[in-house]
Amino acid sequence: MSIRKIESYHLPLKQDYPEAKVDWKIDKQRAALLIHDMQDYFINFYGEESPLIQIVMHNISKLKAWCVQNDIPVYYTAQPAKQDYQDRALLNDMWGAGLTAYPEQADIVKQLAPTKHDLVLTKWRYSAFYRSDLEQLLKKEQRDQLIICGVYAHIGVLQTAAEAFMNGIKPFVIADSVADFSLKDHLFALQYVQRNLGVVHHVNQLVRS
Questions:
Q1: Which of the following is catalytic: 23, 37, 40, 71?
Q2: Rounded Cα distance, 12 and 176, in Å
Q3: pLDDT digits (tens, 9 = 90+) for 92-117
Q4: In sequence order, which residues have a C-beta less than 8 Å from that of residue 85 and are 6 or more positions away?
Q5: DSSP 26-43
Q6: Strand 119-122 relative to strand 145-151, pairing
Q7: CATH architecture for the domain at 29-207
Q8: How far apart are CA 66 and CA 31, in angstroms?
Q9: Where are the domains of the chain?
Q10: pTM
Q11: Is 37 a catalytic residue?
């Protein structure tokens, strides 16, 4: 019912997933960055010595630095340390108590800790838009593109990208700045984005622009 230890795997390459169906380009004046669920609890399943998560965190740091340099707003999601059973609802059936059983692991990982300039959104379900102000904040900032990184690719990252698309916000998932339970799950998420709702990029492709 809980998450099992996640084994390291090699990050996907561009040839591992199909070309996007759209030719959307990231516009620095229209984009925002979402760092998704990078809390100690979720990252601890990879283990302290995981090469995968170390590379992903390094890439997210690089991605965030590029966004800050280009005045692109940065948002985080974080599940609350405590949720009552009714509020957690069906997540109890799927994942058990989850983070609420380990409230001491609720912080964003130290390497990616938000600054006073960033906004942390409370996360209630897979999608970052559910019961949050994310859509309204993006509209206020006149941002209709969302760059997404973090964990887990085939769950919250993918659901957030799908809801962005359905709300008229173009999602861009950064292939080597997300992590998942396995390479198979990771590739599923990237393939789904490219085929149905957005564009997949790699961090170096973006920060060179």
A1: 37
A2: 7
A3: 999 988 898 999 999 999 999 999 99
A4: 92
A5: --TTTEEEEEE--BHHHH
A6: unpaired
A7: 3-Layer(aba) Sandwich (3.40)
A8: 12
A9: 29-207
A10: 0.96
A11: yes
